[in-house]
Structure prediction request, 138 residues.
Amino acid sequence: MPNNFNFTSVEIKGSTGDINFNSSCSNKVKISLSTGNINLLDCKVESLDLVVSTGDITANNLTCINDLTCIISTGEIDFENLTAKNLTITGSTSDVDFVGVVLTEKLKVTLSTGDFEFYKCDANTIEIKTFIKHVSLK
Prediction:
């Protein structure tokens, strides 16, 4: 979706393919996908729910006023220049890479396995529960 659109709410469901979202939304955005990638660029939203079974979740220049929730089974989560109140990630096998992620309250990550790389990130509370391979906080 092109970035010149402004929605009051968005709900996108798909089975296979990629979803590219770069618009604003004054309420909740829900995106769910069975197989494929979710890509967000230059977005400002009230709250955001992202679900993907097999695929990646990527966000760059994202402002989420309240809560951002990601549920992922297998894939990567790459966030750069993201702000939100709370960020919750739940999943199985995923690598998480953050650059410039700032949360005013809490980051909560619950994954079975995966690598974590956080660079220039901040949150009031960080809670990570996982059987991880590697954690790097810089």
